[in-house]
């Protein structure tokens, strides 16, 4: 049997759990600004603001509670916010759910990133494959499966919303059940330290014992058969991790066992590699916020109708799955690597914003649809038409559909690079056991800040898509320049074994 099979199987199980959970959540997220109007923007702003703030403390929480326990516990608010759509429209309940999701997302995704990072490190040590390739491989595998969740939920949402009168009740009942299944799967996930797959009974026993464990209790030791850094004791693990990092200092004081808030702040403020990654993560969050926020509301819903939101989201998710597989093959080619993927994506992103700045200036200036959508009637928003700078009613054309779908496809092609390989790069740069959760949390700190800033811009420049596209275009160019400088003068993006001995000094 392939020695990497148990590790790949573990990542696949993790991805299936996230698949079920986010198949439930993504439909509600995509529909936020389309069905809830301004309150949808506020909800997204709250979620990503809370995610940014709570991510500063997430490394300490993950180290204290444990990766495996937090994976399932942090997923519960996602099920709650999906189920909230089954109740009568209540802004208070929606706000509470948004706060809960924002806080839980920090520990959920930090745990996910650390889980994949540890598995990548274990795979590299057990097979001799470069850590760069292991992180690219496992992250691409995870996101290929995970991205399909959007395709499934949005296809189901599109069919239900177009065929059934009481569509929202049916839609969110099924999605809530699916989300609950995802929570169970994450609870049964085996720990990253073990090479063996666990059966259901063993997993349930571990979950029960973990819930009963006191703060002073000693954590169970890994199986004797487990090899590699993750099976070593704390002192040996730190020594071995330093060897993997080729002598790079972890930045942790000898007496400090957990990455607390002060360590996190010092890590963000002093590490030179992280400093040049921050603009990239900010723009990634802003791009995502623009696409599922202003673009979905004013372009997709405004010109095509709100029922097309789910259809467009489905097409984007399918393309993302296919793109994940293709990008994986590209980055595993040593001649091309991740640097080529980032270069192509930065160019596409700049062209994307430049094109829509020009197109929106011409097309949206003519007016947009004023039809009352049946989904809005179900939500009590029947009087809320799509605002436009011109009161005249202009029907959408086939060219609008082609241009909008083309833009969604290009955005979906870029998605795996930002979601998968940006995290993979951080997992290679910061594979130390203390720095890894900090790096994963940092990703969500800055992508969430970028997302929240974009939602604020969407509220301030409501209906002014041209201004938003121009701002994001220049931000994208600046982020590309920052990553280019990082790759050429600070530390290679494709950090392989022949250059892992290079120590990156923090200023």
Automatic annotation (TrEMBL):
PANTHER family: PROTEIN UNC-93 HOMOLOG A, UNC-93 RELATED
Name under which the protein is recorded: Uncharacterized protein
Alphabetized Pfam families for the sequence: UNC-93 (PF05978)
Transmembrane parts of this sequence: 38-62, 138-164, 170-189, 276-296, 308-328, 340-359, 434-453, 465-486
InterPro entries in the cross-refs: Ion_channel_UNC-93, MFS_trans_sf, UNC-93_regulatory
Topological type in the membrane: Multi-pass membrane protein
Assigned keywords, A-Z: Membrane, Transmembrane, Transmembrane helix
Location of the protein in the cell: Membrane
Keyword Nuclease: no
């Amino acid at each position: 049997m392939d020695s990497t099979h148990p590790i790949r199987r573990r990542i696949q199980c993790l991805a299936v759990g996230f698949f079920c959970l986010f198949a439930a959540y993504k439909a509600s997220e995509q529909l936020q600004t389309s069905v809830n109007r301004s309150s949808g923007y506020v909800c997204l702003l709250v979620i990503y603001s809370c995610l940014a703030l709570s991510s500063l403390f997430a490394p300490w929480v993950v180290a204290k509670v444990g990766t495996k326990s937090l994976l399932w516990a942090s997923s519960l608010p996602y099920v709650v916010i999906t189920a909230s759509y089954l109740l009568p429209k209540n802004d208070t309940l929606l706000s509470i759910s948004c706060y809960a999701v924002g806080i839980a997302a920090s520990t959920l995704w930090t745990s996910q990133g650390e889980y994949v990072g540890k598995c990548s490190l274990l795979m590299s040590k057990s097979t001799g494959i470069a850590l760069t390739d292991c992180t690219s491989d496992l992250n691409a595998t995870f996101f290929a499966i995970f991205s399909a969740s959007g395709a499934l939920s949005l296809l189901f949402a599109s069919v239900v919303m177009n065929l059934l009168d009481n569509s929202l009740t049916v839609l969110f009942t099924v999605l809530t059940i699916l989300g609950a299944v995802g929570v169970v799967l994450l609870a049964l996930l085996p720990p990253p330290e073990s090479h063996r797959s666990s059966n259901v009974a063993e997993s349930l026993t571990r979950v029960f014992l973990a819930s009963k464990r006191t703060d002073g209790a000693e954590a169970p030791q890994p199986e004797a058969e487990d090899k590699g850094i993750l099976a070593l004791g704390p002192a040996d693990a730190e020594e071995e991790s330093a060897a993997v990092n080729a002598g790079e200092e972890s930045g942790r004081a000898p007496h400090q066992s957990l990455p607390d808030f002060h360590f996190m702040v010092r890590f963000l403020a002093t590490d030179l590699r992280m400093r040049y990654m921050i603009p990239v993560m900010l723009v990634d969050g802003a791009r995502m916020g623009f696409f599922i926020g202003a673009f979905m509301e004013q372009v997709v819903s405004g010109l095509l109708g709100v029922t097309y939101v789910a259809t467009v989201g489905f097409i984007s998710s399918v393309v993302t799955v296919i793109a994940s597989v293709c990008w994986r093959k590209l980055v595993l080619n040593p001649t091309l690597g991740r640097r080529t993927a980032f270069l192509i994506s930065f160019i596409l992103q700049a062209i994307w914003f430049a094109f829509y700045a020009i197109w929106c200036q011409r097309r949206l200036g003519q007016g947009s649809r004023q039809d009352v959508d049946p989904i809005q009637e179900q939500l009590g928003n029947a009087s809320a038409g799509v605002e436009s700078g011109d009161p005249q009613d202009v029907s959408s054309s086939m060219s609008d559909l082609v241009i909008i779908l083309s833009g969604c496809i290009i955005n979906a092609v870029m998605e795996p690079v930002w979601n998968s390989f940006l995290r993979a790069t951080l997992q290679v740069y910061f594979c130390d056991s203390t720095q890894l959760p900090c790096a994963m949390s940092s990703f969500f700190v800055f992508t969430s800040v970028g997302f929240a800033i974009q939602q604020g811009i969407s509220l301030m420049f409501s209906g002014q898509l041209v201004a938003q596209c121009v701002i994001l275009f220049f931000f994208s160019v600046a982020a590309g320049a920052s990553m280019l400088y990082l790759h050429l003068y600070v530390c290679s993006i494709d950090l392989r074994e022949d250059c892992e001995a290079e120590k990156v000094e923090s200023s």
